[in-house]
Amino acid sequence: MSQWTDMYRQKLTTPEEAVKLVKSGDWVDYGMATSQPILLDKALAGRKEELKDVKVRMSFTFAPRAVVEVDPNRETFTAMNWHMSGYDRKLCAQGLMNFIPMCYRNEPSMYRDILDVDVAMITVAPMDKHGFFNFGLNISANEAITKKAKKVIVEVNEAMPRALGGRGEQIHISDVAAIVEAGSIPMPTIPFKTGDEIDTKIAEMIVKEIPNGATLQLGVGGLPNTVGAMIAESDLKDLGMHTEMLVDAFYLMYKEGRLTNKLKAVDRDKASWAFALGSQDMYDWIDDNPFLAAYPVDYVNDPFVIAQLDNFISINNCVDIDLFGQISSESSGTHHISGSGGQLDFTDGAYRSRGGKSIIALRSTFHNKKTGKDESRIKPTLLPGTIVTDPRSQVNWVATEYGMVNLMGSSTWERAEKLISIAHPDFREDLIKAADDMKIWRYSNKR
Known about the structure:
With 447 residues, the chain is of the alpha/beta class. It is built from 16 helices and 24 strands. α8 packs across α9 and α9 runs parallel beside α10.
């Protein structure tokens, strides 16, 4: 029996015993997505009547959180979130969850320098022979959270893949206060779905902008998936990956021989990432795979690091853009949708890259279910209360199904002209009138 095995047995306990480490007034951290605990969450919820004023931070939730469900009046637990999933969004709309604004790259430093963590409860892969628990599919800010926490409880899940670093991908048993075994609870998955003919049209324009040897970052959703699938079917060569979110599109590129990382100036021969969500096949690919290198998000999303990668192509989508070039990817008016995430990190970093491009891609219209009408995503101004994710000063390329335009260096009248040129034709005249009223439409502008 090794010393680590003996220590493991000493610290192994039940969820109910483990959560007794939480006291009234504590700050508790669940981590992000696949890091969030299941058994410990239920056990903590079971202490509702004996605790007061427990603040729980989490992010990107993919299963109901018991501490929220058991406390609809927020008498004991106050839930807060760094980036909202569909489930989180509903809670936010009901006043049951509060959003924490951030640039994603800054999350680890906020834990190191500003935030208090009394107890961290993190899901991990089984301990290895050296006494390390692996954070698996979510590296992100877990190292910073657990180092700051006064007490760390790990929930060991045999279904969690073991992700190789990089760095910051693990915690040693000597830094753990309690261990709870969860058996094998399947990891949350998201299906890989490509978009329709409109997404395909946008993707075709974007793929033409990608040279051989480019390093890629992709967001999540039908449009980035369509871009990834199209790249996999292309004849592009020696592509690299440096992305906050590892998605199935990269796995598809790898299987088709497009993704090699051979030409990266940083982390050559390695595909670098901070967290992963996708199919079980992708999780199996991640498990113990030296081709992939997981890092904390303050490294992956650092614009200085991104800028060192030539021909860096960042592809993300958004909710709305106005004629000044302000982009919102997290709210529509005061209706909260997701979060700031790392879009601004990559918008900045890709622009700094030699030969790089930051591309914000969006469909020109959306169907408003409340009015039953199609509306333009390119607006004269953002709706009151809308959060600006990317300031107009940092926006590079914008793409819709009607074309791609580069806003960098463009005056307000040039921006208006360029953005109206890629708006849906049905809305262009109204946008021109609005631009004229706002004194950003020049007499010589194209119509």
